[in-house]
Amino acid sequence: MSLLTTDHAAEIIGKLEKAQGNGAGYAVVETHPAEAQLKASDIQVFKTLDDALDYLDEKEEFGHVPGFGTEEHPLYYQRIENLISDLKTANPTEALMSIVSEKTANDKPLNHSTMNLNNLQDLKKEVTALGFSPKTADELEKNMRQLPQHFTVKDQLPGDKGQVDLTLHFHKSGVSDTYNFGKYEAVAGKVPPSAPNQSYMVLTENKDNKEKPLVKTFDSPNEAIEFFKKQKGTSELSIGESAESRHLLASKDTGKVNFVHDDFRGAYFSPAIKQTFYVKEGAGYSASQAANMVQGRTVHRDDLINPRNGEGYKAWIKLDFEQKKDDWGNFKLKQMNDPAFGFDLEKTLKGFKIKELSDPAHKEAIMAAMKNGDRVAVTAVNREGKEVKLMAEAAPQYKTLDLYSEKGTREKRELYKKPETSQSETKSQAKGKEKDLEESRSVKI
Q1: pLDDT tens-digit profile of 229-278?
Q2: Could you tell me which residues come within 8 angstroms of residue 62 by beta carbon, excluding any fewer than 6 positions away?
Q3: What separation in angstroms does the CA of 298 have from each of 119, 279, 292, 330?
Q4: DSSP helix/strand/coil, 70
Q5: What separation, in Å, do the N-terminal and C-terminal C-alpha atoms of the chain show?
Q6: How far lies 379's CA from each of 74, 356, 422, in Å?
Q7: How far apart are CA 337 and CA 341, in angstroms?
Q8: Alpha-carbon distances, residue 113 vs 106, 109, 110, 148, 177 (angstroms)
Q9: Between 115 and which of 144, 208, 252, 256 could a Cys-Cys bridge form, CB atoms 3.0 to 4.6 Å apart?
Q10: How many CA atoms lie within 13 A of 63 on its CB side?
Q11: Residue 69 to residues 31, 64, 73, 127: CA-CA distances in angstroms?
Q12: What is the pLDDT of residue 35?
């Protein structure tokens, strides 16, 4: 008998599928002698392989890894998707279905022909709490009525250089009638959204009627570009109210690009930034935080949990574009713990001549927006005493603010700093140099 053969297979698979939907990728399994069946509590789930291996290191005295050892309760790790497959092989579908039937025998029978209304209500609350648009909640109901195994819902937010596309993923449990919202992708490109009544479209050759090409329209310019780049034959990427009144943006001949409009080259050749954000029981990065992060900004989280000790902590977090992506194609996160890292937003703001900071309510609103990663409109006073409309955002990595004109060009922050701030920075730098000099002298002695 397989060590994975168990009467608790349905419960275990349900736990693994939910964890997978929440972004977990690996499981650590504690096996037992054949007479002691595997239970859900014998399996720990982890988002990354490193986390799983760290856990194994801590529990090493109980077994040998990887694989089965000679101890009473050996441990091993495995990808969740592979473990689910092995469990289903060791526990045939008929057995799983009978287990589910036993589990629900005393409850109201599951109706597989209609959606779970409580589940729909919970999911609507989750997407609303995370800041997705009302249309997202409406699309949820439309999709759930069809009872697919998996479906996605689209949303958009405005960006600095083009709209940010959001794709929410919903998975149906393999052992119940409930759906889980485990992740969503955010994509930021440099393509502006289409004007009202216009759409981005890709036209491809129609083999049955060469005079009438096939036309596929897109709400998202980023998706339109991605689809166009995959075409192998003769095709074109355009925008317009219809195929007859379209404006050509790019074209291909036998799969090779032979034209890109001058005004469209920057958007076409600059790859869009894409990141997957995971949601666990309705908690995670909000839609606006994700949109800000894929545009290169930093957000503040005060609800983080240390998985090793269960303690809460705060941190500023941004995507690290300088490091290699992980195995799932995501950028790694650059985390700056608060207050240990040393960035004090309120203190930093005081160092700039920003008019709105004199009003406590405006000041709190600015701080809240910057912690969300927003680029905030402010009125700054330059060295000549002139008021200038600027956009400001927190730059925790460099313990300062970044300033931009209303057109998006970067401004020199020194022009808007208070004089005493510059003097104190100079003194601080001088003290640092004196300290380095003293240390070097002590080394020579």
Answers
A1: 999 999 999 999 999 999 999 999 999 999 999 999 988 998 899 999 99
A2: 30, 71, 73, 74, 75
A3: 33, 19, 7, 16
A4: coil
A5: 73
A6: 64, 7, 20
A7: 5
A8: 20, 12, 9, 11, 9
A9: 144
A10: 19
A11: 10, 5, 8, 45
A12: 55
Query: pLDDT per residue over 46-104, tens digit each?
Result: 888 777 777 766 665 443 333 333 344 466 677 888 888 888 878 875 445 544 444 44
Kindly report the pTM of this predicted structure. 0.70
In angstroms, how far is CA 117 from the centroid of its own chain?
A: 27
The amino acid present at 79, given as its one-letter code, is R
Q: Are strands 273-278 and 256-260 parallel, antiparallel or unpaired?
A: unpaired
Q: How far is CA 410 from the centre of its chain?
A: 27
- Residue located via tokens 């032979």: 258
DSSP 360-422: HHHHHHHHHHHHTT--EEEEEE-TTS-EEEEEEEEEGGGTEEEEE-TTS-EE-GGGGB-HHHH
- The secondary structure of the chain in percent helix, strand, coil, rounded to multiples of 5, reads 35, 30, 35
What are the tokens at 192? 């502006």
| 3-state DSSP assignment of residue 192 | coil
Could you tell me if 76 and 49 are in contact, meaning their C-beta atoms sit under 8 angstroms apart? no
* Residue-level length of the chain: 445
